[in-house]
Amino acid sequence: GFTTQQSEVIVSALVKIMNTNLDMIYKDMVTKVQQEIALQQVMSHIGGVKKDMIILEKSEFSALRSENEKIKLELQQIKKQVMDEITKVRADNKLNLNLEKSRVKELHAQQDRALTQTDRKIDTEVADLKTMLESHKLDNIKYLAGSVFTCLTVALGFYRLWI
């Protein structure tokens, strides 16, 4: 329902719009060569970042390793100090234990000496008592014998007087 002239104007307007749109689209688009160049630039940038990361990792790992070595050395020193302290405490405990043992032995020796002295005193007293008992026994036997002889003498004297 358009005239030829109207149709041509509309078509030419649509063509201009399409060309403008395509130009706008082409401005945003890149050619294959430009894309390759951009890709190469991005890849080289990524490679540089990778190198930087590797260097950082190595330096970071080196720092961590050196820190780890320092910590290991400190730990070994602390372990050595602890072992020295343990050895010292053990030696002190052994010394104290030996001292206590010697004190106990000395106390036992003193008790043994006192017991021996007491035993000697008891033995001496028992021996003195036995000696005294024997002495009294002999005295009693003497008196008994004397008394028996005296009685016999008196009895013989009376017997002689009567006979």
TrEMBL record:
It is found in: Mitochondrion membrane. Its main location: mitochondrion. One of its GO terms (biological process) is positive regulation of mitochondrial calcium ion concentration. The keyword Mitochondrion applies. The keyword Transmembrane helix applies. Pfam families: CCDC90-like. Keywords: Coiled coil, Membrane, Mitochondrion, Transmembrane, Transmembrane helix. The chain crosses the membrane at residues 143-162. Belongs to the CCDC90 family. This is MCUR1 regulator. It comes from Edolisoma coerulescens. The gene is Mcur1.
